[in-house]
Structure formats: C-alpha cells, structure tokens
Amino acid sequence: MTMTPAQWEAISASLATLKERSPFYARKFGDIDLADITSPAQFSGLPFTDKADLRQAYPLGLAAVPDEKIVRIHSSSGTTGTPVIIPYTQRDIDDWACMFARCYQYAGLTPRDRVQITPGYGLWTAGIGFQAGAERLGAMAVPMGPGNTDKQLQMMIDLKSTVLCATSSYALLLAEEIERRGIGDQICLRKGIIGSERWGEKMRARIASELGVELYDIYGLTEVYGPGIGINCRADSAMHIWADYVYLEVVDPVTGEPVPDGQVGEIVLTTLRKEGAPLVRFRTHDLSRVVPGPCECGSPHPRIDIITGRTDDMVKVKGVNMFPAQIEEVIRFTDGTSSEYQVMIDHLMGHDVLTLFFETAATGEEREQVERSLEAIFKAKIGMTPQAKGVSIGELPRSEKKTRRIFDNRY
User: Fold this and answer.
1) Which residues of the chain are in CATH 3.30.300.30 domains?
2) Which fold has domain 314-408?
3) Is 120 helix (H, G, I), strand (E, B) or coil?
4) What are phi and psi of 97, to 5 degrees?
5) Is the pLDDT of residue 80 over 60?
6) Model confidence over 243-284: pLDDT tens digits?
7) I need a labelling partner for 328 at 20 to 30 A (CA). Which of 3, 46, 93, 149 fits?
8) Is the domain defined by 90-311 classed in CATH 3.90.1300.10?
9) Counting beta carbons within 10 angstroms of the beta carbon of residue 311, is it exposed (0 to 12), middle (13 to 18) or buried (19 or more)?
10) CA-to-CA distance for 162 and 140, rounded, in angstroms?
11) What backbone phi and psi angles, to 5 degrees, belong to 222?
12) What is the pTM of this model?
C-alpha cells in the first residue's frame, strides 16, 4: 500500500516529537533516532508494535499526553492476558465519532434513521462508538446494549428501529427469534451494521434474508479507536479504511515484509492523528488483502477485503494448518448445511480427531449424505477428513456477543 504525501506528513510530524511525548515509545525505539526516518521506505523498517508490547504498559503507560488531557479510557477484554488500556483525549473522541458517522453515511444512513445498538457498553469500545457515530450523524440512537431479547424486540417494534448494530452472532439470534415469533411484519429494519467477529457467507445470507436488511461490515479494534475505522460501501463488499486517520500496511505474517496489493497478509496500522495513545506499525493479527483499483462508489479511501481470520486463529490437526474462514468455505459449498457450526478437536488413543458439528434441516439418510458430502469437500479443500455430525437447526449454542466456534481440547 503506497503511502500518500498527506499520510507521510502526518507520520513524520508525529515521529518528530514521539519520544518526548511517550515514555512507552522512548523505551521501545531505544537508540533509534526518529529524526533519521526521512522517508516512507525508512518508516517501513521501524519495528512493529504488538499487543504484548501494549500489555507491558498497563495500566496507563501508553499515554502520550499529560493526565489532564485524558478524558476517557477504554480497554481490551484481557481474556488472554493483561488487559490493554487505551487513553483518549477529547480530540480522539471527536475524531472517532466523525469516522463512525462516515461509516453510517457510506452505509446509506440518514438523520431519519433509528439506530438500535446492541453491542456492549462500558470499557468495551463497541456500544459507545456506535452511539457517538449515530449522534454525530444526527440519527436517533437507541442504546440497548446486549441481551434481554424480549426487550430488544419490543423496542425494535415500538420505536420502529430502521438500523440494527450487532455482532453477527446476536443478529442471527434476533433474526431466528423474529421468525420463531412470527413478528417479521412488525419489524422496520432496513440496514444491519455488523462488527466484532468474522462471519461466513451462509450466515450473512441468512441474516440478510430473515431480517430483510442490507448488511455492512464495520471494522476496527480497541487499540485503534474501536470499531468505525472502516466499512464497506453500497457498491462492494470490501471495506474502505479511512486513510486520513490511519495508515494501512499488509505484511507477510511470518517475515513481516510487505505483500503486493491483492495478496492476503496481516493488517498493520499506524494512527495519523491519535493523541492519547498513538500507534506505530501495530500488528492487528487480522488477515486480509488490499483490494486493488478504484471502487465504483468513487471513494478515494483504500479497501481491504472481508477479514478472513486472524493469525492466532489457526489450528493444526494431523499436520494440516486451517483457519475458521476455510471451514466456513466448506460449509458454504456443502448443500444441505445451515450457517452454524462448531469444531471439537480431541486427542484420542494417540491420534488427533476433528469433529465438525453443523446445523441442517436434513434428517435420516439425507442427513448422512450431507455429512459424507461435507467430509469429502473438507478433505478436498483443507487436506484432512473430519468426522462430520449434523444436528438440527437451533441445536448449537447462540450468543449475545461473540460465538466461540473452535474448541481445541488437546492441551
């Protein structure tokens, strides 16, 4: 991804004072004289920043401004280690709201929309980001937060909500519940803004069909403001990334070298305006590719494809590396399967065994045929044969947040 002159101007201005503003980067870059970084090519040689680096700065070691300029903090969940706390200045908050409002505009929202927000509030960035963007746009925010499906549906009907903001898991749960209750004719939704977890084509199609909405993928992560740094437009499924706020690189996850546009690699982001906790070459671990060429919508902002997975999502079974995106592709190509699946990996009698549970409306011999078909397609596309087990629609667990799909019981 070629750096624009405006991006380089912002980055070089930030580097000029970064060590003075940030004890974190003063330690990280050590003997590197940032004044010697005089070109984008030299910038691409700077060390990456990783989440492990950020954890070492807990609680407020990432701050690059005095305490009196910090107006809010957000935090990662900390489920896989020490949480990362990100401080925000007022300008950071305002910039984030502007980016989020732009996301809504790209999805076709207007001030006449009523935006039902189901992601969580609090330390997590999601709920408050969706709300701030709606308010900046001038739309009506309905800040429900997660859970309480009865109340969600009642408010959706009574307030005639036109936009649903949710994880894909909760959007599917609501869609199934609307169908089960037979209240589809009372629902006024026209758009779904979905984020926080990757989702396959079958799940996407089910949600769009059952809710009767246009769906949009919103992108972001806590370390880089939160959701709202990019979204797909009405012309394409690829997501525009706001190049006036972040600089995008895609690198080989093993070597760290840049990959050509169009080739899948790991997304690396550098913030261009962030004051509270600027990030330099932050490895997101998200896997995608730059979509080359201009978008039909005319936007100047670069595009990345739908996130295919994360570098830390990979599991290895019988010597075969696989990602959730590959499993979802198998589900998509297998006739008779629904969108929901769950993988159990066990070590039994000296051998690894992968069992793939999937939902299907098929029964009896027809279900057995779907199982054998899925096993064959899995073998052809991924390189090993699982034990495929079909279950009835709705039998696998649903989640109001993110759905865990792969359980590795070997360790």
Assistant:
1) 314-408
2) GMP Synthetase; Chain A, domain 3 (3.30.300)
3) coil
4) -60, -40
5) no
6) 999 999 999 998 999 999 999 999 999 999 999 999 999 999
7) 149
8) no
9) middle
10) 10
11) -55, -40
12) 0.83
